[in-house]
Fold this sequence. Notes:
This protein is an alpha+beta fold and about 675 residues long. It is built from 17 helices and 22 strands. Mean pLDDT is about 85; it is low at about 60-90, about 280-285, about 370-375, about 540-550 and about 675-684.
Amino acid sequence: MEILRHCLPRVYDxxxxxxxxxxxxxxxxxxxxxxxxxIARVIHxxxxxxxxxxxxxxxxxxxxxxxxxxxxxxxxxxxxxxxHIDNHPNILAACSVTRPSHLxxxxxxxxxxxxxxxxxxxxxxxxxxxxxxxxxxxxxxQPQSHQPKSSNSIIATQLMVQTNQRKILxxxxxxxxxxxxxxxxxxxxxxxxxPILQHLINVHFRTGLQLxxxxxxxxxxxxxLHFVFHKDVVGAFVCHDVQKGEWVLQIPYFAPFQDASDxxxxxxxxxxxxxxGVDGKDVRNDPHDDDDDLEILSIKPWTMGATVAKEYIxxxxxxxxxxxxxxxxxxxPAGGFGMNTGLQDVxxxxxxxxxxxxxxxxxxxxxxxxxxxxxxxxxxxIKEMLQEYESERxxxxxxxxxxxxxxxxxxxxxxxxxxxxxxxxxxxxxxxMSPPMSxxxxxxxxxxxxxxxxxxMMPLVNLQYEGNFYGDTIARNVQRILSxxxxxxxxxxxxxxxxxxxxxxxxxxxxxxxxxxxxxxxxYRLPHLEVECLSTMTHDNNNDQDNVARTLTLTDIExxxxxxxxxxxxxxxxxxxxKPFLSQNMRDMAEAWAQDLCPFSxxxxxxxxxxxxxxxxxxxxxxxxxxxxVLLDIRHQFLDLLSRGDDDVDVNRSFHAxxxxxxGHIANLRAFKSPDPCSKEGHS
Length: 684
């Protein structure tokens, strides 16, 4: 959400607008069915968490769930507008200027397409084109000798993309076509990890108005995830929008003794109704006939795995076929890291490609020939930048894959508490695949397996009755796990906004939901820091916001200053100078230091903690007609955050320089000595 807020604010606003109300998805429930006996409810801190606050939810029994929910709301603050974290009265304590949101992936993809179409109208470039609906058939590498004479590429090998409609020549191909990527397979891409953790049936269904109203009637039963343990169905009901009736049910099955074809529409409908609790058996005094109030939209098998591509950069001669999103990694959905990790992938990659393409165009203009003198250095830079993308994002994907598996295992712990051990069907499968059982016809073994599964699930009928010894024992088992911090969390502060691209700063699995403590250090993103923009120049060739004070956050500051969503431009590095008023010589030193480190152009942003100094700098620049970007650290927090970093930086030195990448991560930082008090150097 931070990426959307700072880079795609129109999408960010639409996500907030189209997401269901927080109270409809902040809870997870556990019970015999959605409307049946509820043995536990966990409310997650999705309304915003403070710095250092862990991501654990609040456990409540069904009888006290509403009370606990209100207690949680009061802890955040009674008058917080739940739809906009920006309105949080104590925003300084919040670890982010955004909050999580819940929106179905197909809706989110539609919003991204709308934004791409909107931006394509603003990009003026002869080779820029947006195409949607084409199918990529294959991608091949073409040596320069086979390229058309009109090609102006300075790269030796181009890529040819064959779609179902045309051929496209390009220098880079970003493969984001999902975990079954054909392009990845064609170019020898391979995985590490476990590709088969569990076979599942994904059931997309919609409830009609009458049934939706019944499901919303008791607010304590409304939530995002409902873990259902019923004698006819054990699965996870995912509620995308209870008001619109959008649901998904995930049902595990065990191949080869259970098959996807076994899940017919009629059987699945019975399972959905049983899991919702509207089959007339575990909902008393129910006069309604809900059979016609349920629509099964799709039934699709899928295989859950935890894999990461061995290489993110493919192509034997080009090394410019780039994997991103699910084409690069596949996780269990527990924790919601799949799409979020993919968004981070492209956030890391897009600025690299934009900078490389811009530099390539500049090189062509300077050389005036097809094969300029900078060919070798350009090729080296491309290789270096893409290798860095691979090492950074693959490391994060590996971390997130391991966390997602731990989350999945947490859900299995809940099943074990219900006396359903996922290992038992697997063991039974192995036994039936081995002699002498393997000599029995498959149809007979499938029938035997189905009978064994039904027998294992039959005792769950006792869960729906309070006062039943067996059912109450299960309830206590589940509550014991959840009260001790078990179960599936929803918020993981360190993994979501506290990760680092420094290879020595890996996250440990000792406490997955530990709180996020912001700091300024190499590899981390600039933390949320409220700053006031007093800039005399914030846009390239655009003075329409000169001298207008605006409150921004230091995270992704370059994107906010440039506002590329309104005026498309190439991303740039940012050289952030803290207290640069003292010495022009130190400013020159910092700029030279950044030029040695950064292969691309950068903007200089000056940060002050003293308003008088900041205003004086603005006035001085106006008099000199010298455009600058001046920020004011309103709360004087910069040095405190810098002191928390792991890098060897003397915070007592009055001049600090940070080289910040376009994606907001700190590439490097350095402290410069204060000038000699006797120095005759004037103010800048």
